[in-house]
Design goal:
The chain is of the alpha+beta class. It contains 14 helices and 25 strands. The chain is globular.
Length: 534
Amino acid sequence: MSAAAARRPVVIIGAGPVGVTAALLLAQHGVPSLLLERHRDIYPLPRAVVADDEICRILQSVGIQEEFAAVSRPAPGLRLLDPRRRVITEFPRSPHGHHGFAQTNMFDQPELERLLRGALARHPECELWSGVEAVSVTQPADGTAPVQVTFRRDGSDGEEYLWADAVLGCDGAGSITRGAIGAVWEDLHFEESWRVIDVRTSRRVHSWDGAEQICCPTRPATYMRVGEDRYRWEFRLDDDERLDGPQGPERLRELVAPWVDLPSDGSKDDDFEVIRQAQYTFRARLADRWRRGRVFLLGDAAHLTPPFIGQGLCAGLRDARNLTWKLAHVLQKGADERLLDTYEQERKPHARHMIRLAVAVGWAMTGGQDRGAALRRTVVGAVCRIPGVTATVSRDLSPALTAGPLVRRRPRLTGRGLAGTFCPQPWVLQGGGRVRLDDVLGDSFAVLTALPPTARMTGVATALGASVIRVGDLDDDGTLAAWLSRGRADAVLLRPDRVVMDTVPTGTGDFTDAAAWAPLLRTARRPAEARPAP
């Protein structure tokens, strides 16, 4: 047996943003983890560039939001333009979103990864092995723990292995973990080859501060301002078009000419630095299963989306937020194993929604190449001009979770209500100073009530280790009271991820019987002693 063949609570394969965020969220719940990363250091070139307000809230929960705010910039939204750059429609994004942050934030992925790695180093519960490649994941036929992870260290031909109570596959589109659980891709019918170009320049760029999507069947393009002097362009190129070689600089000059003035004589411009050029095949895919036993898929291992609404990385961080508190309850508090089934049940429909929305924007941009392309673009433009459509699309990046074991809906009393939605996050008064709501709620369940707490509210809170907080005592700006009133609720039970799990409908007096979810979250028994590794 290898000296490394020890038992770990959680092994995370892949130390990109999703894997590191998962480790940090687990650490908040006191669960140790080991990350295996085949690269020696952070990948130095930009990739993801967009984070929404829900993602900022996740970064707040792992302690780096203030640092992230210093290296990111809010953006006003997305515009769809015709080939002459006339606005077809605009999807505005608020500087003050539901989660307490700007709804769209532009950033450089290596900077985010450095902040996450810095936070990782501050948590003794988290251990990172760099230059270590996982080569296989094997678990018992019945899907129970322990799971065996076989790996190879950089520069070594020999294989080692260790055991884990759970394995998180955050290992990207080429995931070995996906194959280990027998998952296959479901094709959601979008595949195009695009060239991504990241540039640094202090030249004037003729555009607004948000993202632009050029809707054109022959030359669709995306533009966005990422930082003070950082910009990104994405172009769909024909198979025979190249931006390298002797003609590459001139071809690039032609492509970016609508946005930025470069020397007309073709001379080199030292103030227009191409940081990176990369050819990507944008795909829309969804794994048919995200879990087998104690092995899970997160991020690009579970779903691939075209980048047209900036939700690729965001979806992976949402995966981490949804899964980690549930896994912590199972590993540390003896919660029912069925609690882990709710990860895929809740996250997969949302991921499918995001991918379809991104594909819809992609089709609006390109319309395809057939005879119906012009008609489809015309229809898209007409639909987007219907009052309310753009506002609906703009706010629908986090649709409510459907009813399930952890989302209790009572439509006869409250209509759609608040169950399955996120609690807003205003600034509140605490200890004589202003803090964000989540800093008061902590990392566990919480009851927010507009009325004096009842005995049952207190009992529910005690059973879950939750706090009971009257919104009137928080001295916010009225956001929470108004939110409860609109949702026709006197009180709500919040999950650790700030999703509303249950409500007290206005005038009904109390939570109903918790029989639907209590068995999944039982904490009375201690977890069984870990079996020694075979």
